[in-house]
Write a structure and sequence with these properties.
319 residues; alpha+beta; Phosphatase 2c, domain 1; 8 helices
Length: 319
């Protein structure tokens, strides 16, 4: 599993609106390839690196870059890479523009959830061929393909064109999460909403009033910057709130924590706890019981967990 976040193309050095456009993705190597002595991480690492490189080298307007095209570019580069002999990966890819428009392409059981003011506004639907058989980009060596044909079988093969594409318009205070199936197998959308809402309210990023309900804080922009959570969690009484002048603030963990990193770590942590809980049936367990009622699968599902969180900020608010 891997993720990347990248500015897009030449615009990263300019002062235009395109300078704020970003491409991002999570990818999850399919673990079943380990049975063929293939490291599942090779493919996901390769495709994320290739997509990041493709985004950085984009030489047109960021508005013309599509996540499905980015996925295709990454896939083509991995297929052409002689060091990646075989493997497969699911992926969730996005391109966000400064005006809040976001286009998402999801292939397989990696996916996305958009939360707005303590409600689930959008979520992706996993693509599967059957139970625990997600769509996946893959490289199948000729030898393995020939062996399968001898026994009258074949490999399932999916391509970037098969990814489902969704367009959303993010608003100030929205939270967009991309994650691998290690999250979705153990937490449902309401679990994720509960985690995010509690952290957003705790930090003051969202506020509650009897008259208007949930609102977005005016200082949201500060909370999303490195060290921005220091204002939300002041030091205990008796301790100085300022750093010693001889201390490098960059060496402190507090100086790097952002609201979005707190949300991502919280979701990943709760997913890890749920994956190890044999008493609480997660989404994967419930799906397994539906497909195979005779096999009494219980509890969570241990799997790779990767979470990427974006928080939409209108920088003109609160100034």
């Amino acid at each position: 599993m891997l993720f990347f976040v990248s500015k897009i193309g030449k615009s990263r050095h300019s002062q235009s609106d395109d300078a704020q456009a970003v491409a991002f993705a999570v990818a999850d190597g399919v673990g079943g390839w380990a049975e063929s002595r293939v490291d599942p991480a090779d493919f996901s690492h390769g495709i994320c690196g290739a997509m990041a490189k493709a985004a950085l080298s984009w030489d047109e307007s960021a508005e013309k870059l599509r996540p499905r095209q980015l996925l295709q570019d990454g896939y083509d580069q991995v297929v052409a890479d002689p060091s990646v002999k075989a493997g497969g990966s699911t992926a969730s890819v996005g391109v966000a523009l400064p005006d809040g428009r976001v286009e998402l392409a999801n292939l397989g059981d990696s996916g996305s959830v958009l939360l707005r003011l303590a409600a689930v506004h959008h979520y992706s639907v996993p693509q599967t061929h059957g139970f625990n058989t997600p769509y996946q980009l893959s490289i199948i060596p000729p030898r393995m393909r020939a062996q399968a044909s001898v026994f009258g079988g074949s490999y399932l093969e999916d391509y970037p064109r098969d990814a489902s594409v969704t367009n959303v318009q993010m608003q100030h205070g929205d939270v967009l999460m991309l994650a691998t199936d290690g999250v979705f197998d153990n937490l449902n959308n309401q679990d994720i909403l509960k985690i995010v809402s509690s952290r957003m309210l705790l930090t003051g990023a969202w506020t509650v009033s009897p008259e208007s309900g949930i609102n977005v804080s005016d200082n949201l922009c500060d909370l999303t910057r490195p060290g921005g959570l220091a204002s939300a969690f002041p030091p205990p009484s008796g301790q100085s709130s300022t750093k010693e002048s001889t201390k490098d603030p960059g060496s402190d963990l507090e100086s790097t924590i952002t609201l979005q990193s707190l949300l991502a770590a919280s979701i990943a942590g709760e997913a890890k706890i749920a994956s190890l809980d044999y008493r609480r049936d997660g989404p994967f367990a419930k799906e397994a019981q539906r497909y195979y009622p005779g096999d009494y699968y219980r509890g969570g599902k241990v799997d790779d967990i990767c979470v990427l969180v974006l928080v939409a900020v209108d920088e003109s608010i609160g100034k």
